[in-house]
Amino acid sequence: MISKRLRGSLDSSICIRDIFEEGKKMAAIYGSENIFNFTIGNPSVEPPAAVNEAMKEILDTEKPLALHGYPANVGHPEVRRHIANYLNGKYDCHYTEQGIIMTSGAAAAIVVIANSLLDNGDEVVTFAPYFWEYKSYVETLYGKLVPALCNMETLQPDPETFEAALSPKTRFVLINTPNNPTGAVYTEESIRMVTDILKKKQEEYGHPIYLVSDEPYRKLAYDIEVPYLTHYYENTIVVYSYSKALSIPGERIGYIAMESCVQDYEDLIAGMTASMRYLGYVNAPSLQQKMLLKCVDASVDISIYQETRDILYHALTEIGYTCIHPDGAFYLFLKALEEDDTKFCERAKEEKILMAPGTAFYGPGWVRVSYCVPADVAKRSVPAFKKLYDKYQK
Amino acid sequence: MISKRLRGSLDSSICIRDIFEEGKKMAAIYGSENIFNFTIGNPSVEPPAAVNEAMKEILDTEKPLALHGYPANVGHPEVRRHIANYLNGKYDCHYTEQGIIMTSGAAAAIVVIANSLLDNGDEVVTFAPYFWEYKSYVETLYGKLVPALCNMETLQPDPETFEAALSPKTRFVLINTPNNPTGAVYTEESIRMVTDILKKKQEEYGHPIYLVSDEPYRKLAYDIEVPYLTHYYENTIVVYSYSKALSIPGERIGYIAMESCVQDYEDLIAGMTASMRYLGYVNAPSLQQKMLLKCVDASVDISIYQETRDILYHALTEIGYTCIHPDGAFYLFLKALEEDDTKFCERAKEEKILMAPGTAFYGPGWVRVSYCVPADVAKRSVPAFKKLYDKYQK
Lengths: 394, 394
Hints:
2 copies of one chain form a homodimer.
Chain A: H1 4-12, H2 16-30, E1 36-37, H3 49-61, H4 64-68, H5 77-91, E2 100-103, H6 105-117, E3 123-128, H7 133-140, E4 144-149, H8 159-165, E5 170-175, H9 188-205, E6 210-214, E7 236-241, E8 254-258, H10 265-278, H11 286-295, H12 303-319, E9 331-335, H13 341-349, E10 353-354, E11 356-357, E12 366-370, H14 375-393
Parallel strand pairs in A: 1-10, 3-4, 3-5, 5-6, 6-7
Antiparallel strand pairs in A: 2-8, 7-8, 9-12, 11-12
Helix pairs in contact in A: 3-11, 5-11, 6-10, 12-14
């Protein structure tokens, strides 16, 4: 008796969480130390101490009624101002308090943007492979998600598939770099290609195409610059989450950021403000907002992720696996050893290796290895990966 | 360039927050002590000390990575179990951990339920006057809100308008008691009438009609019992928020509760779990969830609201105003002294009284007085109300 809309999508979805649940069952049978679970993107590095310190200080010093009361739908003014100033200093931008809308994480931000922009049948283009929930966000709010497959040799956006995916119905392009599931950081060259095509198409269609940059992994980039997209394209809307930078995904805090040069800026802010209410968010949690006054530049120790990435990348390529060097996030995209990535994942389970099939991310033939696990687990998994590889050589 | 869906609703909405903003402007001109602002439902009684104590203890004792990490979409198991046990003891129910889904407040819960149940054109019936955002929640998620006007002499549900509002397209009935905007607590007699009609109509239509009970004001009831609806109707889905009971509306925490006798129970849980993700919620904020382990039965001091209610109710009726005795929440519904409630509100502003027009709540000819203000403000407003009344006697 649930809605037909939902029924259809539930039946067709491959839920990574189910695989994760299966991992828990396997751990119960074989012992968790004997399972190599690379399925879910749950941060494994401790939050910086500043998070708890900030929360306690706020609880000790602010008046409870004001602290826990309703802020404006768009968030506390001093928090929004603080974030605007931080971004302006860090990325040489021109944000003001007005252009920052506090949201319950990046997922909420994307849904708020979708509700603000999409009428029935409008299209959203994203680069595939992509985070599978994108489809749910867009389709729940009346849109259609159109994937533009990356060049699978480089995992970078491809000009031909991208241009072919755009249409007069495209309201926004959703870009995610560093990328989930591939770990790729889109190069400045890729960004220029994407934004050049967008500028051309905007002119051709006679209406704006917004570039929505979903950046929860921005801080998790290893010895590489992640281009800041406002410098390449005026109609950029940045979506950010502190889930990964501070290892606090359960606390649901992030923001939408727009410079005033974004077309229909005031109108968009009004629409997003209303959408915060219409979608039942009302406002992002108040304590988590205030915490950012003291943690806006804090970060987890990313060298821990980097170490695990290096162990796995070197070991897997040495064994003979194909994978593109992942420069960010905590994902490594691995070419399956047979065409059917789901079957490959099933076979890997025999070696107690759990991975997410690329088909779930519109990246068939590949698998996602989430390396947000202790370095020790990565090390111990290497013989199992070797055994799996050898099985395919017979 | 925002979506046409949103544009239409923005243009037609009467936003109470705008009136509240106007109040702030008036306060700047005349001094806040000279303005009687009864427009917005922002709790004015201090949160119980247990809230901050619980949060600090959790921050001091739990491991940060687990505390701030992803809980299940439906919430922390121990929190859900704790709430189930509490409700079973308090209201003699039969909830289990599985039947409790933690949400970012009651608004989020209603949107999650709407997304789980509504296909395009499905209907939701609610008793008018109603909280104006109901329309936005339902219509954003594909439904149509159908109001059933209460008996305006008693502010209780009316059997004739209710039965007329139901149709084979009705997926759920949204009920809110204690009520925003009227302050009415629906009597046991009203509840029996409503649920008897629902039982009859379910049979007639051959499919379930869920009764969604939105109860953020349950704890704010003055010397009166608020019937617990699961005792009257099996297909009841309870929606709760701690915003008012604990004066923490900025923190966004609440739940959905279903007993296993609810039709299609497992299916609904699967749909709601998916909807938590599809709507971008992912999960209710983790720290706020855990806080409930220590605050599930805590409450603000409701005698403070009751005192203000008594001052206003007695003074206003003595002057000659018509209002029905408000037994719960912090709202008093007052009959306007002219047919056009918006004009009446405008005229009240001349006396520095700010109220919300009933038209915004589908209760034309009346106005909402939010008495979540200091008792002193209520007392000092009485001469202004008298002057306003006298103006209409000429």
